[in-house]
């Protein structure tokens, strides 16, 4: 019985010794032709700022006004909007129209809070009615939808962002009183019998700022209200007839059930925007994006040189691009730093946003990233700001397509950095990605930056 501990100790020692060599076990018995080869590479990327003509976006808030920035140029923002009607409504007997108004509700603004703005509201009296299923570009021709004459003007008001009337603790609104002709025309409940009949009689409103270059309102809601009263006769406590007057109103909101378009114009950017070779710009709304070119053919050649003449099944394990932001603190007073950025194949941009696609984990042409601000190692005061993208699937798809077509990969793959707005559901999954239509911007280190040039780190394998 005393020999048992010795035998157990011997078996345990043998087990421990064997486990220490398990990592090399497979290699020892695997034929050399079947071994996995792993390679790495770092590739310099070229990048350039380019102008964006328009975006497709179903905005849930709007910019309105004019703003000039010495770095990014002028931004002029206007609103074209349908309003929803109270279907099936009929005015009570003995009703009379009293007045009508449009309230612009805004919570924030960019620029000078006390700079005057001259805002005009016109009726959309030209062209076709907006289609709810239609997608409209942000450089839409407003003159095709609204006659901008005095006769077609519904209201005008001069104000500054800080002078508006407070309606809630967290909201500001400016109210425009519409002309008497509009009040008379809207006192007709026959137009509320169907949506098509309503839009035949009232296509919508066009809102623009005629002057001012220092303020942009972030409009969260547009609401048209029609005020009316009616009377009825009842018996009072003495049994005598008494006339009762009831004041009421109808709401016509520019909500998600109808179509709105935020129009953007950047009239002077070609003369103002001149980024240095060391940086590129991304600025919204519909202003500046950055194009990044990835050397596809050079990547394939590098992988071939690592694998040699051996025919291996190639896998792109990682293709990381760290887009570094710079001048964060002194970038511009114009706008906050872009929060969400997407890198997408340039040829897919219009199709992606026009058809409301999502950059899921299996998406081959788009990758989403969030602005990250992290302390530099061994520092308590210096931060680095960046967006990190792994475009491994994108690179692998392009190289695979070239092989299937029996052609050499293209010299370059053009990608675009697009500022976006992202919606999530309760479980944290992305439910919507649209091009950013609010004011934000970021300056990015380019491929020619002397301090930290834009590059991609590649890890690949073959077996």
Structural write-up:
The structure is a single chain. The protein is of the alpha+beta class. It contains eight helices and 24 strands. It has two domains: 33-51 and 273-462; 73-265, no CATH class. The strands form three sheets. Strands 3, 4, 5, 6, 7, 8, 9, 10, 11, 12 and 13 form an eleven-stranded antiparallel sheet that branches. The chain has helices at 3-19, 25-29, 180-186, 195-201, 269-272, 296-307, 349-354, 392-404; strands at 37-44, 46-51, 62-69, 73-81, 95-111, 117-123, 153-159, 165-168, 171-177, 205-211, 214-235, 241-253, 260-265, 279-284, 288-294, 314-326, 340-345, 366-370, 372-375, 383-390, 413-424, 430-435, 440-445, 455-462. The chain is 15% helix and 44% strand.
Query: Helix share of residues?
Result: 10-25%
Q: What is the β-strand count?
A: 24
| Mean residue pLDDT | 86
Q: Give the radius of gyration.
A: 31 Å
Instruction: Specify the biggest β-sheet.
Output: 11 strands, antiparallel
- Cα(first) to Cα(last) distance is 53 Å
Number of domain units = 2
Topology of this structure?
Blueprint: H1 3-19, H2 25-29, E1 37-44, E2 46-51, E3 62-69, E4 73-81, E5 95-111, E6 117-123, E7 153-159, E8 165-168, E9 171-177, H3 180-186, H4 195-201, E10 205-211, E11 214-235, E12 241-253, E13 260-265, H5 269-272, E14 279-284, E15 288-294, H6 296-307, E16 314-326, E17 340-345, H7 349-354, E18 366-370, E19 372-375, E20 383-390, H8 392-404, E21 413-424, E22 430-435, E23 440-445, E24 455-462
Antiparallel strand pairs: 1-24, 2-15, 3-4, 3-11, 4-10, 4-13, 5-9, 5-11, 6-7, 6-10, 8-9, 11-12, 14-23, 15-21, 16-20, 16-23, 16-24, 17-18, 17-21, 19-20, 21-22
